[in-house]
Amino acid sequence: MMIRFESDYTQGAVPEIMDALVKTNMEMTPGYGEDEYCLKAAEKIKLEAECENADVHFLVGGTQTNLTFISSVMRPYQAVICADTGHINVHECGSIEACGTKLLQLPSADGKIGAKEIEKIADGHFSDPIREHAVQPGLVYISFPTENGTLYSKKELEEIYRVCRKYGMLLYIDGARLGYGLASKGNDLELKDFPLLCDAFYIGGTKVGALFGEALVIVNDSCKRDFRYMLKQKGAMLAKGRLLGLQFDALFTDGLYHRISRHAALLAQKIRKAFEDKGIELLYDSPTNQQFPVLTKEQCDFLAGEFAFSPWCKVGSKFAVRFCTSWATDEKDVERLVEAIGNM
Amino acid sequence: MMIRFESDYTQGAVPEIMDALVKTNMEMTPGYGEDEYCLKAAEKIKLEAECENADVHFLVGGTQTNLTFISSVMRPYQAVICADTGHINVHECGSIEACGTKLLQLPSADGKIGAKEIEKIADGHFSDPIREHAVQPGLVYISFPTENGTLYSKKELEEIYRVCRKYGMLLYIDGARLGYGLASKGNDLELKDFPLLCDAFYIGGTKVGALFGEALVIVNDSCKRDFRYMLKQKGAMLAKGRLLGLQFDALFTDGLYHRISRHAALLAQKIRKAFEDKGIELLYDSPTNQQFPVLTKEQCDFLAGEFAFSPWCKVGSKFAVRFCTSWATDEKDVERLVEAIGNM
Amino acid sequence: MMIRFESDYTQGAVPEIMDALVKTNMEMTPGYGEDEYCLKAAEKIKLEAECENADVHFLVGGTQTNLTFISSVMRPYQAVICADTGHINVHECGSIEACGTKLLQLPSADGKIGAKEIEKIADGHFSDPIREHAVQPGLVYISFPTENGTLYSKKELEEIYRVCRKYGMLLYIDGARLGYGLASKGNDLELKDFPLLCDAFYIGGTKVGALFGEALVIVNDSCKRDFRYMLKQKGAMLAKGRLLGLQFDALFTDGLYHRISRHAALLAQKIRKAFEDKGIELLYDSPTNQQFPVLTKEQCDFLAGEFAFSPWCKVGSKFAVRFCTSWATDEKDVERLVEAIGNM
Amino acid sequence: MMIRFESDYTQGAVPEIMDALVKTNMEMTPGYGEDEYCLKAAEKIKLEAECENADVHFLVGGTQTNLTFISSVMRPYQAVICADTGHINVHECGSIEACGTKLLQLPSADGKIGAKEIEKIADGHFSDPIREHAVQPGLVYISFPTENGTLYSKKELEEIYRVCRKYGMLLYIDGARLGYGLASKGNDLELKDFPLLCDAFYIGGTKVGALFGEALVIVNDSCKRDFRYMLKQKGAMLAKGRLLGLQFDALFTDGLYHRISRHAALLAQKIRKAFEDKGIELLYDSPTNQQFPVLTKEQCDFLAGEFAFSPWCKVGSKFAVRFCTSWATDEKDVERLVEAIGNM
């Protein structure tokens, strides 16, 4: 049977979540995220993130979270600055534009964008005498980790946020794989740093241990107003909100979210090392759960006999592909992969 | 402890679903609704509904389903005709308008609208020489059952659909509580009638046995094109689509969906009869799982001591309230309520 | 040849405007409303309206003005309260909804809505415990005069504005025919009252002496920010802005706007009196330039032989029709109409 | 006094238009583009363009025309391919995105994009197995002339249109300066070629002799349906439509549109030659009415003493600037400029 590394959302949820779902199944709770489980989960997140004043909302998926938050804070003529590789730019089917907001794309080699380029585009706009003919940059969107597995350092985030504040732009961080980023070797950020370094971010559950669900943390007071109306309007207010609260309650109890993330990050580094030992180039310098080796056609075919992985892009005459680990990855499967890489 | 009748989505899912979730938790499946479970569930629905050519898509919630389908088929200047009491008009926070589409509201006493009024508004528009100053009716939205628990007869649906086709309007049916409608005494429609009487409808899961989920059945070929793009754009494409397919697979195996619906409908009629026996007026003639007795302040207070129910509206000096049953309602709780009504 | 009373925008502009257009034709001015003519016109309007701090913008037409302003100030989940007869509700092809905003319609017999009904709907919303399931009233739209020719008194406006401020809603007044309203017998409002009684309003030019153009006066500081971006985005920023500034400059020089408005209002009252003298019912009590007599089929046919007028609606077995005067109406044509009415 | 070359819309209209406006001022015509002048103008355009079956609509400005047409033909998940320098991408304040549609930008050095790059992006999309995660290319937008003064050859347009049809994409041409392009030396296209080479295009009036106005020519039947609703909804239906019809009637009588365009194109080439004779580099190879010399700071200052022109962009340590001619440019002013360039 095929051993699968093609994505980090092929399986269900951690046992703690499944147990809680079964155990609470017949409890009667208020709907729409106003139950005790949501309240408890929000409290635990605020406690760990050290942001008692934040608002925490639970949504079902990442695209939904991005479009609901961004459309809530943008005025019609404002635009979002993002990497051209950003998930909202390439893999959410124009969901932000469908809400009326333009994206201003910065070229990115590895998924990251820098404070300097952000400042340049913002400054170019605000110093233009006919600036109202163009959209006004209003928000910067980055992903942590990026879609390419790379990470921002604390210093990089600080610089980006400084630029944002200078030009009156919000900073929003897509944390679909936040756990894997935080658990990665070399990462110098903790959850509690995020409320100080951006206006809002979300903690991904779908790819990190949950059946589904993302926890949006709104730090900036100016972004909080009436957000539940937005949830409802965008179809993002789950009737049985308990299902979301309960999952994040489990994930943020006894460090579970981070424990499972470390598992994935560690196994990914084993895969990375196996490729490096074999002299295989990695397309991005990713310390997180996604690895992007650049393989020859023959190497691809060799591995494809036993393992599932994702195509990524052509690199000259070779092929970059993606291997993902997750909270659910079996260490034995990784060992088998490492062995196979050695035998390529 | 309070016995709760305030809504039909306070609890989790039927045991068959919970078992399947637990059992399949570590299976690896493709994402985004392209797994075997979704395929199987769609096949079962098409088989029972006798519409082999329909497209079936699974979404998470009702507001999401309504906005995704309607925004997919409307041109920018077209409008939706609906009852002023319709869910999209009053309880979805302007989600249809947020996608750019106006609602044309017909007054309704009991949640239903009639072919005659629909024809009048459509004819008024298309015969107006300056019609392009107004929106063009493009779709009729009705709910089965309505938000007030009432049902359309087969003949009424036939007449409405005839008017729709005459004026080139689509007919879309919101079936958030479809199971309860089909299972109700006096209902003369079966699931297989729906594909013949409308262009698209959805089969509600959230309120009828599932943790969450609605099955959208698109019958009219002209509405099918590229719908998966719409799902993605509106944040309605669940990453782990298996969770939806699996639930509808369970519900449409061995008649489970209908069996649990009959349970709820039957218990609701016991409640209704208890109110009638006591000489209490019911605001709407509802054969379904929602009952709306009109109570005095004293009667409200009396029942509120032991039972939870929802406020609805004032009726003169009295108060209409809502009692719901569901697939999860315990027969003993209904017996206790019946007894209490007798003692009012 | 037919004598035409069917609308108030069938002809060009007052001679003063035509002269100015010809005279300035080859002047080179900056574009986009930043020329001297726009500046001068804005100053004259602010002077007469006694609102030095207001922002004045010039747009081409009424629908454009309504949609640009309203979409500028609404958050996505907010809604506009208006009369069901309101121009934005029935004759602007869903332009407000196309920008994402729902309209909450109050029934109106004569085009007006009252402070009491507005308060009721606002209060109903804000006191609803699950209010985020519905849209939030954010702005009240009224027309002065209304689409039916009726007028609000100063007291009525004061009451409406008081309710608006109580619930944090903006008040916006559509003044497509503002001149005719101000010039009408019985009107107790002056231009300078408007900045005190609403957050924004527009002074109609298209129907009152100009070739085209509306002057939007934004009084409330919170509505002013970045409005020129909105103008540009909605295609409402005229390249040769001079054309707009110059027209309003002419209209607001030496009381021209009011002088031509009085002419129209006066002639309309002659028509009204002729109908009344003949015992003909008028559908609305209109002191302005639109009159709505209720005629028999025979009376319609009789007048239609010599005069053009607009159909309005059926009233039992009779027909309400519309006669408009304008700044361009010839007094002799009115005398001929009065005579004909006498002879019906 | 300053001699002004900074844009091509600083002045009013050709005398023929001014005369017609004055002469017809008190005529009573139906509103909203349904008058005889609009009819006549549309007929003349269709005759010259040899497209009897086309629909011709008159709008006030370019941004308005672009957003109204594009939003009329796009489904929500479709996107527009355009040059990154395209007017809709950089100078219309996100108006297309505000209608819900994403732009896919191709890098362009001189304002043009090629069939090959268009095919690559289209093919990349339609061959992607998870294509519904991204927007679907639905329309290609190009400008003739481009914003940089460059022109497509007939062969280039043919190749682009072939790719469009291959992938089911529409081709729409922004002709804000169409006249100047057609009148340029080296151009091998005539007006009658356009209906064969695209699905819709517009003939610019604002910059080519009119006070304002653009004539949208919809060739493809599938784009025609109900377009007048779109006009109304977007605030693009001028009440006194006569003003637009009359201007295009004048422009398309006796070849006026082309005669005035040739005037501008010819003068622009004199300016170009003067710069070339002086050894000054021109940023783009523009045969049309816009010229972009690359000047030193000293050269800029020298010319700025007597002439107004627009800043464009930095080129190394030099500055590209823009000089425009128009139908209204005085030949003597050009001679003076040529002389000054010689003396730099």
Low-confidence stretches of chain A: none
Query: Helicity of chain A, in percent?
Result: 25-40%
Mean pLDDT rating of chain A: 97
The share of residues in extended strands of chain A comes to: 15-25%
Name the helix and strand elements of chain A from N-terminus to C-terminus, one letter apiece: EHHEHEHHEHEHEHHEEHHHEEHEEEH
Major sheet details of chain A: 7 strands, mixed
Secondary-structure-based class of chain A equals alpha/beta
Name the assembly state: homotetramer
Q: How far is the first residue's CA from the last residue's CA of chain A? A: 19 Å
Question: Count the strands of chain A?
Answer: 13
Kindly describe this structure.
Four copies of one chain form a homotetramer. Chain A is α/β, with parallel strands linked by helices and 344 residues long. In chain A, 40% of the residues lie in helices and 17% in strands. Chain A is built from 14 helices and 13 strands. Chain A has helices spanning 15-23, 36-49, 62-73, 87-90, 95-98, 115-126, 154-166, 178-182, 194-197, 227-233, 242-251, 256-277, 297-304, 331-342, and strands spanning 3-4, 55-59, 78-83, 102-106, 136-143, 170-174, 200-204, 214-218, 290-291, 294-295, 307-308, 310-315, 318-324. In chain A, the strands form three sheets. A seven-stranded mixed β-sheet of chain A has the order 2-8-7-6-5-3-4, with helices on both faces. In chain A, strand 5 (136-143), helix 7 and strand 6 form a beta-alpha-beta unit. In chain A, helix 6 packs parallel to helix 7 (154-166). The longest helix of chain A is centred in the last third of the chain and has 22 residues, at 256-277. The radius of gyration of chain A is 20 Å and the shape is globular. The mean pLDDT of chain A is 97. The interface between C and D is large, with 48 and 48 residues.
